[in-house]
Amino acid sequence: MAFSASILPQQIKLAIKGLTTGRLVAMAILIGGIIAGFSFLINWSETGNLHPLYSNLAPEDAAQVVARLRERQIPYQLTMDGTGVLIPYDKIYETRLELASEGLPRGDGIGFEVFDETNLGMTEFVQNVNYQRALQGELSRTINTLLEVESTRVHIVMPAKSLFIEEEEPATASVIVKLRRGKHLSKDQIQGIVHLVSSSVSRLKPEDVTIIDNSGKMLAGFKETSTVSQVTSNQLAFQEKKERLLENRVKTMLESVLGRDKAIVRVSCLLNFVQQEKTEELYLPDNSVVRSEQASTSFVNGAGSKASGVPGLQSNVVPNTTGATGAAGSKNNQKQQFTKNYEVGKLINRQIMPVGSIQRLSVAVVVDGSYRPAEEGADGEQAQYIPRTTEEMTKLENIVKSAVDYDGTRGDKIEVVNIPFEVETPTETNNFTETPGWLEMIKTHQSLIKYSAAALFFFFSYMIVLKPLSRWLTSTPIEEIQMLEQLPQTIKELERRYAEAGKEDSYTRQLENVIRDNRSGSTQLMKEWLKET
């Protein structure tokens, strides 16, 4: 039958009409899978040599990077909703160096590069605004270097300076942090961000910095929170940490002696969080020294007369008055003065009492005994438990007291008790080494398992789905062959076909008659043919 392109669509329609519903669905699935596979191969072949230049770019940085790539005529492709750029692998590092020399990517916001281009007509107000924008941008870039932070916005309010200190208002700052998926900031990191911002802005105190995350949760800036509650929370955390430290110290020591999981330790501490400051001033009377000494001497020289005669005014005043006169005598006086200052020894002692000292300590320890294995051949026999002796318990108690720094004067209490943990524990378990679980094995060989699973998936998909489906579709039953033979044919082709069929039927009929008439000869002839083959 000659091929004719005009009747090809009609023949395809007849062939599709002859298929069952199941085969039509299978053919549609097969054709869709082939188209999807070819689309993936074409896409992969186009982007197979492209690798990430940058990812998670800001829209402004992505636009500038794309503009530079167009200027250099470097092929690129945008991914991740326009925040990622792919270029050929052999040009990645060179392009990164060239873009870095131009300051790209700049990150979120604008930094101090705003002052690279100076404008002579710029006013002081514009300069102050640009400085504030640059400071906000630089702080945002610095905070973005944390592994847990994806992006940051910083807002700073800097009041105008005043000539009077009393009228100056403090600066304030707000930080909005967008965290990466599954990440969170610890208290130390939050305090680090607070002090970073407060130290970068003048007149900004740490308590005036507010930090919130992308979900609106306040991380810092709790001005309304009571200081007492914060102190109490820190004290409880410190007490718990102290108790866990002592428990771990005692437990590791006992397990090294008794064996793994052979001891249970619980510690309770009563800590003193009272802040005390003590100052003593002691005087030492036996320790006295001369601090200063001063001596002074004075002399008085002169003549003097002693009064004599009749008492009265006339005898003493009128001259040439007869009277008894005394003999004149001289006068010489000396005066000395000594002053000594002593310094008494003094001792000043100033002490700040430690916060969090242990007032009372309580330790409870439960240890397991030893086990004797059951006799060989004994059915249903359990391991025999052997309690520890009094001497062993005394030694263990002394070890625990030394480990926790036991002090009986402050009321410390230590209890060490021997109780069986598990009666049916065989001795062979003491030498048992724990093997890593299947989850740890999967995590260790995660990459190998991933690629192996993908290869197996494609292999079984081809062997179980695609190959049988294509074979089933390509296989044509006898009825369909007969149906296809009934497709439009010429009259000559139909006559030739029926003529050949008639001849074949006549030859077959004649052969059947010969075999029926001469069975023995026909049988012998068949045997000879079999021998020849």
Protein described:
The chain is an alpha+beta fold and 533 residues long. Among the domains are: 49 residues, no CATH class; 102 residues, ANL, C-terminal domain (GMP Synthetase, Chain A, domain 3, 2-Layer Sandwich), CATH 3.30.300; 108 residues, ANL, C-terminal domain (GMP Synthetase, Chain A, domain 3). The protein is 43% helix and 24% strand. It has 14 helices and 14 strands. The strands form five sheets. A four-stranded mixed sheet has the order 4-5-6-7. Strand 6 and strand 7 form a beta hairpin. The longest helix has 32 residues. The chain is flat, with a radius of gyration of 55 Å. About 3% of the residues have low confidence.
State the CATH architecture of the domain at 225-274 and 355-373 and 384-422: 2-Layer Sandwich
Overall pLDDT score: 76
CATH fold category name of the domain at 225-274 and 355-373 and 384-422: GMP Synthetase, Chain A, domain 3
Strand content: 15-25%
CATH-assigned homologous superfamily of the domain at 225-274 and 355-373 and 384-422: ANL, C-terminal domain
The tally of beta strands, per DSSP, is 14
Q: What characteristic shape results from the CA principal axes?
A: flat
Radius of gyration: 55 Å
CATH class of the domain at 225-274 and 355-373 and 384-422: Alpha Beta
- Structural class, from helix and strand content? alpha+beta
Helix content: 40-55%
**Widest β-sheet, arrangement of strands:** 4-5-6-7
Which residue ranges are poorly predicted, with pLDDT under 50 across at least 5 consecutive positions? Answer: 321-328, 425-432
Order of helices and strands: HHEHEEHHEEHEEHEEHEEEEHEHHHHH
Transmembrane segments: 21-42
Main location: other
Membrane topology: Multi-pass membrane protein
Domain Flagellar M-ring C-terminal: 254-421
